[in-house]
Amino acid sequence: MPAVNNLWILLLKKHRPVFVCMIIMSLLDGMCQLLIVGITYKVIEIPSNANSFRLFFIFILAVLIYSVSQKINNELVIDFIEKRIAEIRLNVIDNVRSTYLRTYESIGTDKIYTSLTFDIKAVSDISSTISLTIRVFLGYGFLLFYMAYLSLTAFVIFISIQVLLLLFTLYSQIRLRAVIKEIRETEKNLFESFRHLFDGFKETRLDHKKNDDFYNNSLKYHTENVRREKIKEIKYITGAYTASYGIWIYLMVLLIFLIPFATESKIEVLFEYICIIMYMSISFIVQEIMRFTVASISVQRFYELEQELTILDQEISTTAEEKDNFKFHNISYVDIKFHYESQSRYAFSVGPLSLTINAGEIVFIVGGNGSGKSTLVKLITGLYNIDSGKVFLDGKEIQISQYRWMFSPIFPDFHLFDRLYGLSGIIDEKEVNNMIRLMKLEKAVQFSSGKFTSLDLSTGQKKRLAMVAAMMENKPIFIFDEWAADQDPHFRDYFYNTLLPMFKVKGKTVIAITHDDRYFHVADKVVKLEYGKLY
Predict the structure, then answer these.
(1) End-to-end CA distance of the chain
(2) Among 531, 492, 533, 534, CA closest to 515
(3) How many alpha carbons lie under 13 Å from residue 497 in its C-beta half-sphere?
(4) For the range 84-93, what are the long-range contacts, defined as Cβ-Cβ under 8 Å and sequence gap of 24 or more?
(5) Sign of the torsion angle spanned by Cα atoms 384, 387, 389, 395
(6) What pLDDT is attached to residue 363?
(7) Closest Cα to residue 315, out of 97, 49, 161, 12?
(8) Where does the pLDDT of residue 172 fall: very low under 50, low under 70, confident under 90, or very high at 90 and above?
(9) Residue ranges of the alpha helices (H) in 282-357?
(10) Within its chain, how far is the Cα of 458 from the centroid?
């Protein structure tokens, strides 16, 4: 069935040798189960005065082999599945970290985060039962062979009943998948409300009417929706399980009445059939199929995410060799153009525009809100692919995405890492702490044991610490997007009149987005952008 099939493909893809070992151990397990059942009924037929020591010895040996194979199989399956899940998670992470920024933005962090946490947990939660499920199904198969050996006619009747139960179970799983998908949508809305709660905490605390309205019409409303959908899911699972098991019992009773009329089997065969049927873990099978169905929804989400990462623009895996103390004369962007994908006829675009940036220059990019400044910076750095146009480095045409290592940016939504990744083994802690003192942060943070001691800083302080990281990276080109906006007057002046000239003296190129017209004289070039065009 599709639910189980998707799960097996995800977990066992490219790992057939391990799967073969699991099957062999499960086959050994199933044969031992069959042997135990056969011996049990053989003992019943032996006269009380007969010697049954040989059967007793075989029975003990079968139980011992069954127990050992079960333990080995459990350890093998759980270890394999947890390793496979770790591989899957790392594969998704590797795909995400290697994709284009626009692809990442179009997929959204919520979907990626859900896949890496909730979905992977749903698959991991059933790892402990997969081994047992394999053994049960194989044991079930051995028992079916044994039943066919006892009476072929009774076996055909039994299989017919099984087919009816299977059809009902498949129908239940289709309905269950639809219910689970509805729950996913309601949970998505609830998580969105949580995000508004955290991001808008200050706003709601200032206005009790807004706070109460948001609570009643968003948080409470979506929480109630999730509760109702969860209850619906539990009721459906419980009802489907009860119905499946009830149908099984009724059909088995019917089987007991049909066999004597349909066959000439002895009463002992009928008794043995009844005992085998009672031995079969039908309730477990029905319950586990439902658990696999729930996990298969998460598997499907993995496939969808992987497909999105594959279908959308693929990142070029090669990059130009990064060289220490790399120097260049100029970088030119000629007639570059970019537009955002949108259903609207007024989708925003940048360009065509041309811009040349010389080494050691300080370039200011200015313009109103929504003029395309941040988009232009993403095009300059290669984070966005240009739709048309060319880029030249010292007169040689290049793919700018292969030269991203030239840039050290501080974006408005920058992330501050606790370590200087990419500089491991070449970090002079004394030099880092000197720069921290230069940024007047020594009372708030230090660099020790290869990491910053704290990131619990104000926005302005975090930007100054990001500046320390950028200076340590020592890239040829600095990108500052409104860096001075969150600084006090002293550090704003220090940024324009001290830091930028210092970078220029060191031969660094600076591209800064700014609105501070009082400091335009510091720049070698001021580029004005309006509606995606240079003026």
Answers:
(1) 62
(2) 492
(3) 8
(4) 84/11, 84/12, 84/15, 85/11, 85/120, 85/123, 85/124, 85/127, 88/10, 88/120, 88/123, 88/302, 89/116, 89/120, 92/116, 92/302, 92/305, 92/306
(5) positive
(6) 93
(7) 97
(8) confident
(9) 282-311
(10) 31
Q: What is residue 384's DSSP assignment? A: S
45-82: b (≥16 Cβ within 10 Å) or e: eeeeeeeeeebeeebeebeebbeebbeebbeebeebbe
Least confidently predicted of 205-209, 413-417, 475-479: 205-209
Instruction: Reply yes or no on whether the pLDDT at 309 is more than 70.
Output: no
Whether 350 and 372 have beta carbons less than 8 Å apart is answered as yes
**Spatial CA neighbour of 403 closest among 316, 277, 306, 291:** 316
The domains found in the chain, sorted by start residue, are 1-143 (1.20.1560.10), 330-534 (3.40.50.300)
Alpha helices, H only, 46-126: 53-97, 101-107, 109-114, 120-125
Amino acid at 308: E
Residue 158's SS3 state is helix
Extract the tokens encoding 152. 């072929």
* CB burial string 101-123: b at 16+ within 10 A, e below: ebbbeebeeeebebbbeebbebb
Residue type, 299: V
CB atoms within 10 A of CB 275: 13
- Report pLDDT digits (tens) over 493-510: 989 999 999 999 988 999
Count CB atoms within 10 A of the CB of residue 450.
Answer: 14
Say what the pTM is: 0.65
Return the bridge partners of 480, or none. Answer: 410, 512
Give bridge partners of residue 339 from the DSSP assignment.
349
d(CA 255, CA 427): 77
Residues in the chain, how many? 535
At which residue do the structure tokens 């049990």 appear? 40
- Please give the order of strands across the beta sheet that includes 477-481: 407-410, 477-481, 509-513, 362-366, 525-530, 533-534
Sign of the C-alpha dihedral computed for residues 343, 345, 348 and 351 taken in this order: positive
Angle at 219 between CA 218 and CA 225, to 5 degrees: 85
CA distances from 340 to 106, 218, 251, 344, 481 (A): 11, 31, 61, 10, 20
What is the C-alpha separation between 248 and 11, in angstroms, rounded?
31
Q: Give the CA distances from residue 96 to residues 111, 112, 119, 144, 239, in Å, rounded to whole numbers and listed in that order.
A: 12, 8, 16, 47, 40
pLDDT in tens, 400-434: 888 888 899 998 888 888 888 887 667 888 888 99
